[in-house]
Amino acid sequence: MRHRSLLILTTVLTTGALTLTACGSRDKKDDNGGGDKKTTVVIGVDAPLTGQNSATGLGIQYGVQIAVDDANAKNLVPGVKFEVKALDDKALPPTGQQNATALVANKDVLGVVGPLNSGVAQTMQQVFATANLVEISPSNTNPTLTQGKDWAAGNKTRPFKTYFRTATTDAIQGGFAADYAVNTLKKKSVFVVDDKQTYGAGLAALFKQGFTKAGGKVAGEDHVNVGDKDFATLVTKIKNSGADLVYYGGQYDEAQIVTKQLKDSGAKLPLFGGDGIYSDTFITTAGKASEGDLATSVGEPVDGLPAAKDFIQKYKDKKYPGDYGTYGGYSYDAATAIIKAIGNVVKDGKVPADARQQIVAEVQKSQFDGIAGKVSFDEFGDTTNKRLTVYQVTNGKWKAVKSGTYDAG
């Protein structure tokens, strides 16, 4: 549910006023080598760059940075020099909303990549929509963001035409994981845990639905708080439940501690989670306790995609922090979609007054082969790339064990 207050209403109205002058001119110029002048266009990034979820957040930031560097090196949009403005939302919804307002107020920002967290996205969408500023998330998976609150009942309505994503939704991810758990792992009973956040709770509910539909049984359920460190009570509940699998809806920050404390207690149950736990940090922190744990993530393994080879090499050569493997490729593709759209609107460095609105329309028409797969969007702003992969920790590394998709019906 999206609550409204006088403060939020004031923010939105102020944002709307800012858009009246946001794209009227581009006076900021930069020298380009031999003296040619170029108009500066900024691609905004919002993600958790410190604290909770920062490993994946940094992967988003630098995925965009490489896309922008490539566009500048290839002179992809003549007359334009691209820059990145990355803001840290710390995985906090109110901070994300503040960042959205700041990006809208910057007249040079013509598109935004992010955020990482679905709960943060809920506070940003209206701000960007009021300003006609395109937003593409490489990682949000909650279905309500694109299909509305009644999507599960079959009543799909797109809330914001400015919002897109290059990651497929939890309606597919939850069922895909559940099908694998029952039919491949042969698990019969699951204990479901979530972190009470928009992403985690939503994904856990969809996994549970898929697991029971496939013939499995839910042995128990519980919730944790973001930032918790002691899971002794939860571990006891899991051990007493008789479950042969633990499913965790949430991010790696808590999941890596849950699995370690569970294994240290003598329970050798695998922990299965979504893309929120698919991070090298999960393995590093949990250590040997992570062996055998599983995660689903969007798309095919980026390390095995020929189109992503150059991107990965650049990421490593630059020694950028964070995990590129989770959303780095999808961030690169999201930024590229925005850059291509800008190229169709901004000619010879001249930015029309309604550039932001035109760019939204151009992004909707995107059709190209990205480094992580085909990039195009349906009528809801969702990616048409529905591929997912199950990974398992094997000898201290994530190993892809199955790629495919799922018919959510």
UniProtKB/TrEMBL annotation:
Keywords carried by this UniProt record: Signal
Keyword Signal: yes
Domain of life: Bacteria
Pfam families registered for this protein in UniProt: Peripla_BP_6
Boundaries of every Leucine-binding protein domain copy: 40-396
Transmembrane segments: none
PROSITE patterns per UniProt: PROKAR_LIPOPROTEIN (PS51257)
Family: Belongs to the leucine-binding protein family.
Protein name listed in UniProt: Branched-chain amino acid ABC transporter substrate-binding protein
